[in-house]
Specification:
The chain is of the alpha+beta class and 75 residues long. The protein is built from 3 helices and 2 strands, in the order ββααα.
Length: 75
């Protein structure tokens, strides 16, 4: 039987994300692949910069106004 599952590695063992229907002590062969995002390393700023986001010039100083549509900003 071949089945693909998702699991988390806690530093010692792989823990399945969902229940598995195998009897205890069943011998299996594990081949693993890390998700693409886990393999890529980069800072938050590198990722944010790569998104090429555009916004008004006062976005950083008036972020809450834009998020919550408060008055008091030029429009």
């Amino acid at each position: 039987m071949v089945k693909t599952i998702e699991a988390l590695f806690d530093g010692i063992v792989f823990r399945p994300v969902e229940p598995i229907t195998l009897k205890p002590n069943t011998r299996v062969r594990i081949t693993f692949e890390t998700p693409r995002l886990a393999r890529e390393k980069g800072s938050f700023l590198q990722v944010a910069s790569s998104l090429k986001l555009e916004g008004p010039p006062d976005w950083s100083t008036n972020l809450e106004d834009y998020l919550y549509e408060k008055g008091g900003r030029e429009g």
